[in-house]
Structures are given as C-alpha cells and as structure tokens.
Design brief:
The chain is of the alpha/beta class and 364 residues long. The protein is built from 11 helices and 13 strands.
Length: 364
C-alpha cells in the first residue's frame, strides 16, 4: 500500500533545510511504498491552482545537504489561515484551511512534515487540531523555539557572526574604532550572545536585557581611558534601550507579513554613543548573510537527525509532535508545548553568567 508524505518548508529560510529534506527522503524510502513530495513555497504549492507539488526522487535530492536555502522554496507571508484574496475593497486575508485539508485528503497525503519556526509550528498546531496528521521540525537561526536544546541553523548563524566579530576586531584595532555589529535575533539574543562571547566582544546587547546607553558609554570610556582604543559591541536586532523599551522598527505593510521589519538598532546606538564617547564608530548589519550559504557540519548532522526522527514518528503514527534535540537524545514533544512561549535567554542562564564572568557589559 502506498503512503505519501508531504514536506513543507515555511517561514524564513535557514541553513540545514535541504539536509532535513534529504534525510526525510532517505529514511522514508527504506520503507516499502512510502513516497515523499514537496509543496513549493510552503503551503502555497498545494493551495494554488495549478498546484505546485513535486515528487522527491533520488535525483532531485542528491547532494543537497550541503546547499543553503531550500529546494522547496519558502515564504513568511500568509498561510492557510491567513490567505490573501483580492476583493472590491482591496486585499484581505481569509481562512482557507478547510480547502487545504480537502486537498491533502483528495491527493492522498497521509502526513505533512512541516519544517519551520514558531509561526509555522503555530499553523501546524491549528491544522493538527483540525485533524491533519502533522509532524513539526524546529527551524530558525534565532534558536527561539522552546522544548528543544537547539533548532537547526542556529550554530551556522553563530559561526558566521563570530567570523564577522573576528574580522571586525582586526580593522577596529588598526583604526582604534568602536565597531557595532548588529545580528539577527528578534525576540531572543542567542546569536548575539554566543558570537559576542566567542569573539571576545566588550559589550553584548540582547532583547532579553533592556540596555542603558549611559552604562554602555561608561564601559567604553573606561576601556578607551585604559589605553585600549578599540572595542566591539554586538547587538541583536531586537535589543531595546531602557528609555524606549521598544524594538527599533522600520515599518512596512506587506500583506500577510506579520513581523515588524527590524534592522538599524546598531546604527542608532552608534549614533547616540558617538555624542558621549570619544571614539570613532562604525556599524555593520550582518542581516541575511546569517541565513544564507552552506550549513556547518553541526547543523547538517542535527538536520539529518531531525529528518530521521520525523519519519520514525510518522511510522509510529505519532502526530501533533515536534521532533526535539534533548542532549544526547532525539525525542518528540507536543507541538502545542513548543509554541507556548519563545525560548528566550533566562536571567539564570549559564551563558549569561559566562558573559558576566568574562567581564562583558550587557548594558544593565
Ligand atoms: O526569524 C528569523 C529571522 O531571521 C529574524 O531574526 C529576522 O527578524 C527575520 O527572520 C527577518 O525575516 P525576513 O527579512 O526574511 O522577513
């Protein structure tokens, strides 16, 4: 008897997506009669007419584990519960989840494996509650999904951000400058904190700890007065100053795009500090460089494990579950648990303790 799995990659892309897709296929094909398909551009592939669904084959997944992005494409707009439609009054979004469910059943998909972050897994949970056999795989460079030690893609982003800090150190030291590096991390500062520790930053600012610009300035002035003329500040895009308590947002109004567009908090900080610190400031926004390119070995291995575990859950008929890495095991947790709250850095986290122990200023 044939059994069909549909893979969906949703939300922002992330290094390791293709490695997960390949692992799902390789494990699934070890079972008689199991076929694997991919919906192009998240759920759009199955929702749109004509549909865009491809059957995954040994040819089209060959060697993809080293490639960045997703061969299935992705989107972080819309989705079955917020489907954009044009009306006489302009665009609005409607709930087309019932249509999606009918199509899944009509085309004989026994299971959906949804590879995505918090937003995608919220969709997974709603579909599960409506009867879809769904399994989640936690993806995001921000590492902000709960109930797993790590999401895949995070370690690659940390590697890229650390490499950026290392490079900024040499130019900062040559010019006696303060370099501000802005990383991604909307709600959680895992990338900034990890790369800042790894690269030896003087100051690390994260969304979890609102920063006092006066305290940051004091630390920089002390450093400059002590004869060290350069410093590195790593700041997460979602960091907030105590004076505003808000994200630094660039507004935009794309239909179905739920996030506020961040980026620029680093430049704003440098601008403010340059009035109160006697140093030359330069800012680098690392942006989507953190999401592109090949996954490091750690993420390829984690992605492979996630893909294999997801197929095992399928074979055990365990749906509504998200695969999870709980060192040293691969386990599964209810998707409902994983989406309850963001995995932010807790005040008693040992990583924070490490940063403080190294004398790094966290802006508080
Ligand atoms: O959720 C991952 C993330 O990389 C965030 O850190 C960032 O704010 C967001 O995606 C940006 O997404 P995009 O520019 O693709 O809309």
């Amino acid at each position: 008897m044939k059994r069909k799995i549909l893979i969906v990659t949703g939300g922002g892309d992330c290094p390791g997506l293709n490695a997960v897709i390949r692992a799902i296929c390789k494990r699934a094909w070890q079972e008689a009669g199991v076929e694997v398909y991919g919906s192009i551009e998240a759920y759009n592939g199955i929702m749109n007419e004509p549909m865009k669904i491809i059957e995954l084959t040994p040819e089209n997944i060959s060697g993809i584990h080293v490639k960045g992005g997703t061969i299935l494409k992705t989107t972080n707009k819309g989705g079955p519960f917020n489907w954009p439609v044009r009306t006489n009054d302009g665009w609005k979004t409607v709930d087309l989840s019932d249509e999606l469910i009918k199509k899944l059943s009509y085309y004989g998909f026994d299971c959906v494996i949804s590879i995505g972050g918090d937003g995608s897994q919220k969709i997974s949970q709603k579909l599960y509650e409506k009867g879809v056999n769904i399994i989640g795989i936690p993806k995001t460079i921000d590492n902000d999904l709960s109930c797993t030690d790590f999401t895949f893609g995070f370690q690659t982003a940390v590697e890229i951000a650390t490499d950026a800090v290392d490079k900024l150190v040499t130019t900062a030291a040559s010019h006696n400058r303060v370099m501000v590096l802005e990383t991604m991390g909307r709600d959680a500062g895992w990338i900034a904190l990890s790369a800042g520790i790894a690269g030896g930053a003087e100051v690390i600012l994260i969304p979890e700890i609102p920063y006092d610009v006066e305290k940051v300035a004091k630390r920089l002035n002390e450093r400059i007065d002590s004869g060290k003329g350069f410093a590195i500040i790593v700041i997460a895009e979602g960091a907030k100053s105590i004076s505003t308590g808000k994200y630094y947002v660039k507004n935009r109004n794309d239909l179905g795009y739920k996030n506020q567009l961040l980026s620029a908090v680093g430049g704003e900080l440098a601008h403010t500090l340059s009035d109160i610190v006697n140093a030359d400031f330069r800012t680098t926004i690392l942006g989507h460089l953190q999401r592109g390119g090949t996954p490091i070995a750690y993420d390829r291995i984690l992605s492979a494990q996630f893909g294999i575990k997801a197929v095992e859950l399928f074979l055990e008929n365990k749906f509504g579950q998200m695969v999870s890495y709980k060192h040293p095991e691969l386990v599964s947790v209810p998707i409902a648990e994983a989406i309850k709250e963001y995995n932010v850095i807790k005040p008693d986290s040992y990583l924070l303790k490490t940063a403080r122990g190294l004398g790094i200023c966290l802006g508080d």
